[in-house]
Amino acid sequence: MERAVRWFSLAVRRYPAAIAAGTMIVCGVLAFGVTRLEFQTGQDTLIDPSSGVAQDSERFQRQFGGDYLLVLFETPSDDPSILQLFTPQNQERLRQLEEELRASGDYHSVITPLLILELATTQVETRMREEPLRLARAQDEAAAAARADAAARGEDEDQQEAAAEAARQRVADEFRERFGADARRFAEAGEASLDNPAFVEFVLLDADGEIRRELSGVFPDKRHALMIARPQGNLSIDEGSAVAADLVERVGGYEFDGVTALVSGPALLIKTINDQMRESLVIMAVFAVVIMSAVLFLVFRARWRLLSLPAVLVGCVAAFGLMGFAGIPLTMVTISGLPILIGLGVDFAVQVHSRIEEETFATESAEAGVERASLALGPALFAAAVAACAGFLVLHLSEVPMIRDFGSMLAVGAAIVFVVGTLLIACVVFLRERTRIGPREEVTSRVQVERLVGGLTARTVGRLVPIALIAALIAVAGLYAGRQIGTESDPERFVPQDSEVLKDLRYVRDVTGSTSELNLLIEIDASVDGAPETVIDDDVLAWMIGYEDTLLREHPELRRSSSIASLTRSLTGGEPTRAAAEQAIEAAPEGLVDSVVSDDLRVASITFAISGGDSLNERKRLNEAILAAAEPPAGVTVAPAGIAVVGIASVDALNANRDLMSFVALIAIFVVLLLFFRHPVKAVAPLLPVVLALGASAMIIYVSGMEYSPLTSISGPLIIAMGTEFSVLLMARYFEERSHGLDARAAMSRASLRIGRAITASGLTVMGGFVVLAFSGFPLLDNFGRVTALNIGISLVSTLVLLPPLLVWADEERGFMGVAARAAE
Model-level pTM? Predict the structure, then answer.
């Protein structure tokens, strides 16, 4: 290691301009990769594509289309009649819009209010023809049963006939009570045509003047109607966003007399997230630069104190360019890496800048300053950087693809900003100092951090026992408290709350009762002996309709269901059978049939509309209850699918390895430090303040009543990775001062005085990198940024409170094999 450091020092002193120019050229080449960066917010970033949930959802969308888009038609509050939507002019516009959408090829199915009204008209006409026939059959059956019962009782023929007539009359009375009002209204409505407003009113409204129950899914009340446009399945995020934007534009091109149209739906919300993510990248970068500039100006004590920023920005551009070439996508998580890398890069650069200036000031020689700074700081800073990268790579244990990408991005980015920042800062500072004329004067900072750090160290050294006991209590209590902290799992709270699209989505949900759905994929498993031939076999349909009815009755959060079984019952008015299903498939519009059953009749769907606003944890419990209640016939499989199920799986995956990742990060960084320092105590000591910080922050979050977001579950490895650096640098500086002959307490006092200002500036810049996430506009990132910044700040304080008395005690008492004494030999 020493040989590599000396080589680096020699290269900087001999070829500073060439190294700086070469670094800029390489970064410039890598910058071209930025144009290849892709934004992804699709299913593949949330769950592993090879997982069962992902494959079931992929098959479902391939067969039945993607996440739907909704168009809410609304009449003015002073004219509460959705009948206005069906004027001749508006009917023509609805037909044109439907034809236009179908012709685009972007949609698997388009179901308009007019299509449902036409279907309802067919049902009414069929019902009016068939109900009298059903009455006659019902009367004959009731009369025959009554006659048989009378005969069984030994009654004569006259008595049997009287019983039969009474049974006929009862059936007729029941029929008139159930159907008589509708029959009279049908007769009074006149011509059975949608051009007849009276007939349209009859079709839509029951005898009480309310929307018919069977039409409530499309007509939630007398002022509103829904159009459901389901895009083709398995679209990429950009393709899905384009379809959503296209629907908004197409609907906006039509003016409906007396009716307004509002486009909404989860797909449009995803489009908005995708668009705002791109804008947030620039906004967060600007805020990061502003915050870093303020920290460096106020705290950092050096000439050209803002030099670190441009150097690190160059490194960040190179890092993101390499991401583009490597195919690492930008997601809702990886996009947060920019301010984090800026903060981390400034952290490294500040250490190099501060130490070179310190040594140059002490020796009055730029050459000696670079050489001494490299030998003293280089190994420890390199160890801290490698430990950070190891901690970041632990994120590959996550089951969530975008978290694994985040780990790769941070590890690669940290390595690049470390190399670029170190090379540029060392070369530029050396060139400046080498050509300086006149005496060198040490620069002071706006805030005298040294006094704060020195005072804190002086009060903690010699008081290890009480400090250690308090630290242990905090760590243990924090471990318990961390398990009690809730996790926010309402997807709508992960996105900007002032988003117009989110407001529209909630408004549509308030009107309709639902803007989300839970899908079940029903398939025939031919490998099972005795499996049904199709999903419309009698036993399958009987199970399906009974299953739907039971779930709707037992779970009020399920508003309504849609399947080939319920469609058949709605169209035929009787219990679904294969013959009735075939009749329904023949009579129903193609788009409606395609949404519930495949062409080969071997795959079907059951879709439940869910009341919105539920957390994913509540959805998970509902999903488990629905699956537990499924007892399909042999040879029929039931699998959950769709965006709700993907969301549940992604949150489970985020939380799956939370504790494991933190534990592995500690082990990985311990191994890295052990390899560098070759002493177990020197490998363990830097980790103790981080463990204390994790416990302390958990207690603060618990007491404050905050909740974690799913993304915060991965903050443990990040905090361990970055927080360890402070301890490593302070410990290394202590051993360095000890080797100069100072006693333990004097060495700690000098070390904290010399490096305290640099690690404080470093800590504040890293915190600033996470605080910037609060300006992303995404609550998911905001929570992650605030919690992680809190942890980094506590790590910095823990380092200055716990590590000094621990190292001094180990040295003075020669505990742990005389750590400092052995290091000085």
Answer: 0.77
